[in-house]
Write a structure and sequence with these properties.
Strand order of the largest sheet: 3-6-4-5
Number of helices: 9
Number of domains: 2
Keywords: Coiled coil, DNA-binding, Repressor, Transcription, Transcription regulation
Structural class: alpha+beta
Largest sheet: 4 strands, mixed
Shape: elongated
Strand content: 5-15%
Number of strands: 6
Protein name: MerR family transcriptional regulator
Distance between the termini: 62 Å
Organism: Catonella massiliensis
Order of helices and strands: HHEEHHHHHEEHHEE
Length: about 270
């Protein structure tokens, strides 16, 4: 019978049969060498039913190919296995639904723990010698950092990878993440080398562009590295304080200097 007649029997579109032919699931018994017309026989209608139902049940093309030469008993067993697998997955989804709110609360608690750690380190940090800040101004800066962290927590709570954070442990940074000199999306816009304290030059880098993403890469000697969290938070807090009306993204990485000198580089997104 022609492809049109066969499609009518099977209740499908001829295009479906052409697709099955292309992927070697159901090939016609004959293709006219002159016209290219496809012809099928009646027995292939049973094969079509097998393919259609296996496909509707979620079997992959490869799985269907492996079942086409099986009898109905084997097909029924395959359906039973698929049902068992889907029921297991359904139960997993139900379990996830039950634990969802608990997990969200756990994430919030751990974000709060990170914020508390940053705040405590900033409060214990001697900001005067490094940044030249008086105590009252520094307290205001800590408040600004906390507000910034609040906004980050609200906007990224579903992205926070709490598996990576363990209270009392330092999470190892991925070095390749801050390979900014080779990142084509960023350009170097400021650099300062062999400095003693941030306060000596930070005024040179306060004016930032609205809507840009910035990455600060700071290499410091051993004494400064010991206070890297407070150092980075104070640095970013100063920049945010000087640019209150600008919507910018910041990432800051503090690493130990290889030459025991201090280096400061700023990269921003291009365009």
């Amino acid at each position: 019978m022609t492809i049109k007649e066969f499609a009518h029997i099977c209740g499908c579109n001829p295009q479906t049969l052409r697709y099955y032919d292309q992927i070697d699931l159901l090939k016609p018994v004959k293709v006219d060498r002159w016209s290219g017309y496809r012809y099928y026989d009646e027995e292939q209608a049973y094969v079509f039913v097998k393919i259609k139902n296996l496909q509707k049940a979620g079997f992959t093309i490869d799985e269907i190919r492996g079942l086409l030469d099986k009898d109905n008993l084997a097909i029924c067993r395959a359906f039973d296995e698929k049902i068992a697998k889907e029921e297991k997955r359904l139960q997993e989804i139900k379990d996830i639904r039950q634990s969802y709110q608990t997990e969200m609360n756990n994430i919030k608690d751990k974000i709060d723990a990170v914020r508390k750690k940053i705040t405590e380190e900033m409060q214990a940090y001697n900001q005067t010698s490094e940044f030249g800040l008086h105590a009252d101004k520094y307290e205001g800066l800590i408040d600004n950092v906390n507000r910034y962290l609040d906004n980050v927590a609200i906007s990224n709570i579903d992205k926070f990878d709490y598996e990576e954070f363990h209270e009392g442990e330092d999470v190892e940074e991925e070095a390749e993440f801050f390979n900014m000199p080779e990142n084509e999306d960023y350009e170097l816009v400021y650099e300062k080398h062999d400095w003693c304290n941030i306060k000596d030059f930070i005024d040179e880098f306060y004016n930032i562009e609205n809507g840009k993403e910035y990455a600060l890469l700071v290499s410091v000697n051993e004494s400064k590295k010991a206070y890297s969290t407070a150092f980075a938070s104070t640095l970013m807090g100063l920049i945010l304080t000087k640019n209150p009306d600008k919507n910018c993204g910041f990432t800051c990485n503090i690493e130990k200097s290889k030459d025991n000198k201090n280096h400061f580089r700023v990269f921003k997104t291009k365009g």
